């Protein structure tokens, strides 16, 4: 399954439920924000070190995978509705970041 | 460029700047949240209809692509640090959603 | 009950549960962000017009009041931990906004 | 200046700029979320300990006060538009939390 396959699956999913009218860019940024809020809540009381050991708690493990999945789904759906190629846009941004933040001399 | 290539590029980018110690799951969820905040701000005063016509303003067009790229970069970096396969996790979530939200009868 | 009374109540609440070590500015901004995510989720699929008629659904009515309360509690707790007088800071910001956004001529 | 005075000031501010039509609950939750995103970004790379020492950097000090002010302003404006008494709602929530999280025995 590629990113494009998953995007198509989400498009079909929305169509089969008549959800397309709800999936405006405005609404989808809100949905994305809500899911990121659920993800951040899973780490809020952990120290940075504890957050790196997140797999030690099985319930947390499921929840983190579940919430990061939701974030991914809304991000893909938003990009599809916006007509943006996420990989190309992200790659172009790394190009700009390379110039903005030069690597350390070695 | 695939998702895996981009993930590797971000890994190299962080290593070349000694940023890895900052890239804990906790910190990266915060960075993700901050970027989603910048994205949502671009749509906050638009009607849903105006949000769908976002490409009519060239400055907004650049900013939306720039911010959604930042969201993507932090999401990929977070998934890499967590050791989560985003496509697999997202696909498994759609499987669960198929059961939770049955399609409309046609 | 004033804002200061409520702030004191939250201070006592945290102390009675030994939660103070968790209430760093970093953690509290995450908690605030998580609660705002829950609040935004209540409005994500509504049109702006429907969002203005939010009291027509009793379940939503309770949820909106509950979530905005959570946002308020974490904001007050964060301000207390930071040692910031919220009213003074907000008022100073409106002063700056008055200069940045002149009123319309009437 | 009380919370009610500040709320009234924001009401007048919006009216003097014809911003009221933009200030729907939906839009204001987005604006609130965007400002929380800017606040969280100020703490994302800090350790919890560094976040507690946030006043050691004068630029950060100004930015934190500025962003928490923005969060406060949008929260007050949202509560006003929703017709919610923030102090009463927050206080009622602490009542519920008292039952949900009993204090430690001493």
Automatic annotation (TrEMBL), chains A, B, C, D:
<dbReference type="InterPro" id="IPR025984">
    <property type="entry name" value="DCTPP"/>
</dbReference>
<dbReference type="GO" id="GO:0009143">
    <property type="term" value="P:nucleoside triphosphate catabolic process"/>
</dbReference>
<keyword id="KW-0378">Hydrolase</keyword>
<dbReference type="InterPro" id="IPR052555">
    <property type="entry name" value="dCTP_Pyrophosphatase"/>
</dbReference>
<dbReference type="Pfam" id="PF12643">
    <property type="entry name" value="MazG-like"/>
</dbReference>
<dbReference type="GO" id="GO:0047429">
    <property type="term" value="F:nucleoside triphosphate diphosphatase activity"/>
</dbReference>
<protein>
    <submittedName>
        <fullName>Nucleotide pyrophosphohydrolase</fullName>
    </submittedName>
</protein>
């Amino acid at each position: 399954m590629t990113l494009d396959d998953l995007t198509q699956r989400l498009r079909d999913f929305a169509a089969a439920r008549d959800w397309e009218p709800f999936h405006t860019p405005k609404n989808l940024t809100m949905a994305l924000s809500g899911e990121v809020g659920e993800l951040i809540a899973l780490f809020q009381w952990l120290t940075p070190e504890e957050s790196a050991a997140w797999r030690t708690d099985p319930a947390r493990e499921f929840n983190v995978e579940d919430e990061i999945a939701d974030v991914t789904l809304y991000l893909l759906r938003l990009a599809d509705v916006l007509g943006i190629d996420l990989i190309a846009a992200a790659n172009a941004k790394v190009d700009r970041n390379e110039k903005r933040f030069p690597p350390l001399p070695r």
